[in-house]
Design a protein that fits this description.
By secondary structure, this protein is of the alpha/beta class. It has eleven helices and eight strands. It is 30% helix and 10% strand.
Length: 452
């Protein structure tokens, strides 16, 4: 793959973390990181230009359907994206933002396609390895994250193929599960190489297994087997498993550290996919983070009440689900009451913004230079309070979703754009609000519309 036979691990992301020549002690120093979403797996809201040019009737809603439509042109199209969307400068900028980790989501077709798959296979693997070397250059540690598995573990578009959940589910479920174990045998052996020690410190097994659909005991048994395979292949770093949306307390005693040393729980915390949270006032949302999510971390990090070692591998400062394509191509929003998914039990067809009147996405989706000053203050406080929560009570820290988006309407999902807009801290380790330095402002009294 063109990798050099020697490497230099002397780089250090910032003064708060050790150089790559030394181990990172997560129990003493929380990680502060960011995802590179929408790069090696497309996600429509991050790169809407791939989907804007098609009519909804064409059914192009994810990487699978886009790849099938492009046919022989898919390789050139995707490789141009891989080359330009994330570059070496990205890693320099992440370092300069005071961050020290990157999470790299990649798909199973980076290894190979399954029969009948239209994906561009194997090409993204080269860019994954290139990214890891750029991370090394700037002293950034890496979480490699198998973000898509055969059969799809959650049915969402960011797993490549929107629709059914067939991984560990249905007649082919065991086959897809075993195929994924085989991939981990190969991947773990690769990342167990000496060149990745202290660099690839976190190894993700599968992103967001939807255990609201999947059978929890089956997923737990698969995870146990996957852990053993990764260890047998020589990988000595931390092995990350997703919480499956079951809640922190459900993992108490499942993977105890005596049997599974180095096993880390990954929780994804978002406010905007919950109708009840969307309906809260701005001030109430800050209080929710500083109370409920701080409590979640306390529960999760204590082995008596939760798993123990815990990271928050995805989160965002966004407080609405307004962004175009966020809820899938062609699907509306909970905020405006246009969430028209096919499952009637999940539809939200009445507005969900605070007060449920005058709910418009125009303000949240506007360019950030038009934001009201009080709204910018809220967004910055929201980001800093979440950072505080995820580092509290022994939490191992966070990875923001995501670093880069194509368009300004997605500023609240881009760490890079958020910094430019003044709604993210300029240095991740230098923050003003920490959930303990005074009461949360009454943003309504400051003139901020609750429908903003």
């Amino acid at each position: 793959m063109g990798l050099n036979s020697t490497w230099d691990n002397s780089a250090r992301a910032n003064v708060n973390v050790p150089p790559l020549t030394e181990a990172f002690n997560y129990t003493e120093t929380p990680m502060r990181g960011v995802n590179l979403g929408g790069w090696l797996i497309l996600e429509p809201f991050i790169t809407p230009s791939f989907f804007d040019i098609y009519n909804l009737s064409q059914g192009i809603v994810d990487e699978y359907t886009l790849s099938a439509h492009l046919g022989d042109n898919a390789k050139d199209t995707f490789e141009k994206h891989y080359m330009s969307f994330i570059t070496e400068q990205t890693f320099s900028d992440i370092r300069d933002a005071g961050l020290d980790h990157v999470r790299l989501p990649y798909p199973y077709w980076a290894i190979e396609n399954l029969e009948g798959d239209p994906y561009v296979e194997k090409v993204s693997w080269r860019y994954l390895l290139r990214a890891i070397e750029w991370a090394r250059k700037y002293g950034l540690r890496v979480n490699v994250d198998l973000h898509s598995v055969p059969g799809n573990a959650n049915g969402w578009n960011h797993s490549g193929h929107q629709g059914q959940v067939l991984w560990l589910n249905g007649t082919m479920g065991e086959y897809y599960g075993n195929l994924t174990l085989g991939y981990h045998a190969r991947l773990a052996a690769f990342f167990a190489q000496e060149r990745y020690k202290n660099l690839v410190t976190l190894y993700g097994l599968v992103n967001e297994p939807n255990m609201m659909v999947l059978d929890p005991p089956t997923v737990i048994n698969w995870t146990s087997t996957a852990y053993d395979i990764v260890r047998e292949k020589g990988y000595e770093g931390y092995i990350v498993f997703g919480d499956g949306f079951r809640g922190a307390s459900s993992w108490a005693g499942v993977f105890n550290q005596s049997r599974y040393p180095g096993m880390v729980l990954d929780m994804h915390q978002y406010m905007i996919f919950n109708q009840g949270l969307i309906a809260q006032s701005h001030s109430a949302k800050i209080n929710f983070v500083c109370q409920s999510w701080v409590n979640d971390m306390q529960v999760s990090t204590n082995p008596a009440t939760g798993h123990g070692p815990t990271i928050v591998g995805e989160w965002s400062q966004a407080d609405t689900d307004c962004l175009r394509y966020l809820n899938n191509v062609g699907v509306g929003t909970r905020w405006e009451g246009t969430f028209n998914v096919s499952d009637p039990s999940l539809q939200v067809l009445t507005p969900s913004c605070p007060g449920a009147t005058n709910c418009t996405c125009a303000l949240a989706n506007a360019p950030p230079e038009t934001y009201d000053d009080s709204y910018k203050e809220f967004l910055l406080m929201s980001a800093e309070s979440q950072m505080t929560a995820f580092e509290s009570n022994g939490g191992w820290g966070f990875m923001y979703w995501t670093w880069k988006t194509e368009t300004a309407d997605a500023t609240q999902w881009s760490y890079e754009r958020g910094m430019s807009a003044g709604i993210m801290p300029q240095l991740a380790y230098n923050r003003t609000y920490n959930c303990t330095n005074g009461d949360t402002p009454d943003f309504s009294a400051l003139g901020l519309l609750e429908t903003y």
